[in-house]
Amino acid sequence: MAYLWYKAFHLIGIVVWFAGLFYLVRLFVYHVEADAQPEPARTILTQQYQIMEKRLYNLITTPGMAVTVVMAIGLLTTEPDVLKSGWLHFKLALVAVLIAYHFYCGRLIKQLAENRCNWSSQQLRGLNEVPTVILVGIVLLAVFKQSLPIDTTILGIIGMIIAMVVIIQFYAKKRQENSTTSLAQKQQ
């Protein structure tokens, strides 16, 4: 019965953690784009984004990560033999990368607050896709375990990354065209 409780709260923690990570970096995008706004909008938006980023990171995302990790440890205590499985080693490696990403986002919050962030909104849009790729890998490993078709998975993930890059580039081009059209209309 303990296994089921650990698993349930592990899944809840994952959902909360990823929801926070997805939204957090989106806030970074808006935060960086606020610098292009005239005053007083720039200051108002920047202050609001700083509050939202800190609250999201400290009150939702970090607790979600903590619940995920603690419940995973609980799961491993109920089935310690699973630690011998190669698929789990890969999954734990992806989780370690995700935890590093999480703390890097905390570092970006501080850099944005100190106006020292060198990331463009375009680069942050790309960074926002990192947890998606990691999530796909983790879920596939958790579902397929040792029967995961590695070649197909790698090709699928590479295809997904290429599609993300193309979509982000297309979106950037579209935004640029809209900005140019809007500026031309204002000048008329």
From TrEMBL:
Which residue ranges traverse the bilayer? Answer: 6-25, 56-76, 88-109, 130-148, 154-172
Record-level Gene Ontology MF annotations: metal ion binding; protoporphyrinogen oxidase activity
BP GO terms, sorted: protoporphyrinogen IX biosynthetic process
Return the GO cellular component terms, semicolon-separated.
plasma membrane
Tell me what topology the record assigns in the membrane.
Answer: Multi-pass membrane protein
Please give the InterPro entries that the UniProt record associates with this protein: HemJ-like (IPR005265)
Q: Which UniProt keywords apply?
A: Cell membrane, Heme, Iron, Membrane, Metal-binding, Oxidoreductase, Transmembrane, Transmembrane helix
Top-rank lineage group of the source organism: Bacteria
> In the record's cofactor note, how is the cofactor described as bound?
Binds 1 heme b (iron(II)-protoporphyrin IX) group per subunit.
- Annotated positions binding heme: H10, K91
Compartment(s): Cell membrane
KW Glycoprotein (keyword) present: no
Q: Give EC number(s), comma-separated.
A: 1.3.99.-
Pathway the protein takes part in: Porphyrin-containing compound metabolism; protoporphyrin-IX biosynthesis; protoporphyrin-IX from protoporphyrinogen-IX: step 1/1
What cofactors does the UniProt entry give for this protein? heme b
Which reactions does this protein catalyse?
protoporphyrinogen IX + 3 A = protoporphyrin IX + 3 AH2
The record's listing under HAMAP family reads: HemJ
Function recorded in the entry? Catalyzes the oxidation of protoporphyrinogen IX to protoporphyrin IX.
Q: How does it assemble?
A: Homodimer.
Q: Which family does it belong to?
A: Belongs to the HemJ family.
Q: Which PANTHER family match?
A: PROTOPORPHYRINOGEN IX OXIDASE (PTHR40255:SF1), UPF0093 MEMBRANE PROTEIN SLR1790 (PTHR40255)
Q: What is this protein called?
A: Protoporphyrinogen IX oxidase
Give me the gene this protein comes from: hemJ
